[in-house]
């Protein structure tokens, strides 16, 4: 066999292995287009996350003249015995579940209602998303006025109905956390409603008509037609809501600043106080690592559930 024939056979094979002409150029162009969106994520999210993880293994404190030393896992060992942090962690879980579950149920009911052919439905949909358009700080200030013990609309209504003299909802040990949870439900309902409403509108109407012709009632149609169609959206938005609620800061900070007596001190508030009130940056970073680990576990459980659900289908 001549060298020319070998070259003739090996040439096309090497060209095939390299891919079609221009593939490398297209890959470079794709990376060039993705880079503007990728850089802010790397600089503003991934970079600070890695720096915070590294900071958790140091004794970093406030003070420009103080040197930072590597202390290994000492911050995490102290964190294991910090009852105040674990109490805030418990409050954070109560807050996250207390907001996420009612938020989803109420949003589902509202989405089912807004999916009906009602008069002025466009106006009802616009009004339903108003809390979503308001910054959390504005929502917190507004609800502080609602809960005001002297001139708040809630206490004024209670007095007008003759149900008592009202109370200070945000400073009472028994009422502060439920009052804040109520605000969290109200503020987060619109985004859940919009997501579920989009899923309802993508459900073929013919399936509901066929189920109705078969004699299925409203509950059976919801269970056999509506819920399977919106289940993936419901699981996704619930997981995201739980993460967002567990990481809440601005709303609770404006309403109560973690009081009274730490009854509304969420983990994020506790870490904020350790870092910026007491200057314990390394210890606060360790708290942040614990919260990141919890969120990672939640995301892993969600992804595993989605993968198993896809395999069953």
UniProtKB/TrEMBL annotation:
The chain crosses the membrane at residues 30-57, 93-114, 126-146, 169-189, 233-255, 281-305. Residues 89-302 form the ABC transmembrane type-1 domain. Keywords: Cell membrane, Membrane, Transmembrane, Transmembrane helix, Transport. Residues 1-22 are annotated as: Disordered. It is a multi-pass membrane protein. It holds the Pfam family BPD_transp_1. The keyword Ligase does not apply. InterPro entries: ABC_transporter_permease (IPR051393), MetI-like (IPR000515), MetI-like_sf (IPR035906). One of its GO terms (cellular component) is plasma membrane. It comes from the Bacteria. PROSITE patterns: ABC_TM1 (PS50928). SUPFAM superfamilies: MetI-like. GO terms for biological process: transmembrane transport. It is found in: Cell membrane. Belongs to the binding-protein-dependent transport system permease family. This is Sugar ABC transporter permease. It comes from Streptomyces microflavus (Streptomyces lipmanii). The lineage of its organism: Bacteria, Bacillati, Actinomycetota, Actinomycetes, Kitasatosporales.
């Amino acid at each position: 066999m001549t060298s020319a024939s070998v070259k003739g056979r090996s040439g096309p094979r090497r060209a095939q292995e390299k891919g079609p002409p221009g593939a490398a150029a297209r890959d470079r162009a794709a990376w060039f287009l993705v880079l503007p969106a990728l850089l802010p994520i790397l600089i503003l999210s991934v970079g600070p996350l890695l720096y915070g993880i590294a900071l958790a293994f140091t004794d970093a404190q406030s003070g420009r003249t103080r040197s930072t030393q590597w202390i290994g896992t000492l911050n995490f060992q102290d964190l294991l015995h910090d009852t105040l942090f674990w109490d805030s962690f418990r409050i954070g879980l109560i807050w996250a579940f207390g907001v996420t579950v009612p938020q989803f149920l109420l949003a589902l009911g509202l989405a089912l209602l807004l999916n009906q052919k009602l008069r002025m439905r466009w106006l009802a949909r616009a009004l339903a998303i108003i809390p979503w358009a308001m910054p959390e700080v504005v929502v917190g200030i507004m609800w502080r006025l609602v809960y005001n013990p002297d001139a708040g609309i809630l206490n004024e209504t209670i007095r007008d109905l003759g149900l008592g003299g009202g109370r200070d909802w945000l400073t009472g040990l028994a009422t502060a956390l439920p009052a804040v949870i109520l605000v969290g439900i109200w503020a987060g309902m619109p985004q859940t409603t919009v997501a579920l409403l989009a899923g309802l509108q993508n459900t073929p109407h013919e399936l509901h008509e066929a189920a109705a012709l078969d004699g299925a009632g409203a509950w059976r149609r919801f269970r056999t037609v509506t819920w399977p169609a919106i289940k993936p959206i419901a699981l996704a938005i619930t997981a995201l809501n739980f993460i967002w609620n567990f990481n809440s800061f601005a709303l609770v900070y404006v309403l109560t600043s973690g009081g009274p007596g730490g009854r509304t001190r969420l983990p994020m508030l506790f870490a904020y106080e350790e870092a910026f009130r007491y200057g314990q940056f390394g210890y606060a970073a360790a708290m942040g690592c614990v919260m990141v680990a919890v969120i990672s576990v939640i995301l892993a459980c969600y992804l595993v559930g989605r993968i198993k659900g896809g395999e069953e289908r």
